[in-house]
Amino acid sequence: MPRIEDVAERAGVSVTTVSRVLNNRGYISEKTRDKVHQVMKELNYQPNEMARALFRRKSNMIGLIIPAVSHPFFSELAYYLEYYADQKGYKLLLCNSNRNIAKERKYIEMLKKNQVDAIIMGSSVLDIKHYLNLNLPIVSFDRTVAEDIPFVTSDNFLGGKLAAKLFIDKGCHHPVYIYRGIGGPHHGALLANARAQGYDEELAAAGLNPIHLQLEITDDDQPSNPSEVVRFLSEHPQVDGIFASSDVIAAEAIQACRQLNKNIPNDIKIIGYDDVKVATLVSPQLTTIRQPIREMGERTIELVAKQLEGEEVPKVNSFPVHLIERETT
What we know:
InterPro entries: HTH_LacI (IPR000843), LacI/GalR-like_sensor (IPR046335), Lambda_DNA-bd_dom_sf (IPR010982), Peripla_BP_I (IPR028082). By secondary structure, the protein is an alpha/beta fold. It is 43% helix and 17% strand. It has 3 domains: 4-56, 434 Repressor (Amino-terminal Domain) (Orthogonal Bundle); 61-153 and 294-318, Response regulator (Rossmann fold); 156-292, Rossmann fold. The strands form 2 sheets. The chain has a 6-stranded parallel β-sheet with strand order 2-1-3-4-5-11, with helices on both faces. It is elongated, with a radius of gyration of 25 Å.
């Protein structure tokens, strides 16, 4: 494997000059620059990226911590984050925390050792001090962290109100909000909690009594056996609407209704949240609250890049949501 010394010798320049060409530092004539690049190509020289990062004090890497990339929402989000990061010359280091404190702490240490330039925090079961002590630009996704840390979210409160209003318009009298419990001591900072608040407020204004069902936490947030929903619906046969906190949970609800021979949407109406691809793959196709995941991913990377360039960024970055009505209502 060729070394930087080999490039310098073949090009007839010093190692320092080659290093300056690699890191675009200091004045180098175009002739010398072209010569060094030509030799690098001839020798198939691959620069040591970590060594370059130490020299430049910049790695062009962004750490991304999410609960689980297997979850359709976070999978789609990670796709757009990687796409827009690449557009700006950055690479992502993906970390699945599984909402495990020990695992998240290990990932923080790994990101420090790899000298990432910034962190996108989509999962936080650790105390925020573990992030603040890194002295790195941070962007939080769908959760408040600290007054000086920007976050990207959607209008969760409106999303809940839109779901409740649709139930009211469709004549539902006993709808239920179904969500999966969030592990970790800092779940109260999750902005998604506002979905339930908006939902409850709209129902209460219409004289209806909000009902909630909290499902057990699963390790990967994938659709599980819908037995919990089956049991609940069996015990509460009057339920005529389900608002799920994610499209994944809504898919579980569809399975549960199928087991109980409940017709959708005649016997019971179902509304999901996110509008990920699974919403159009299930049968019947799912009515849901759409979050603009692509735009949210683009803004997140934009906030990271601007902070790295020393620019001021807005702390609150909220996007509108929209009701997408399909076959389940």
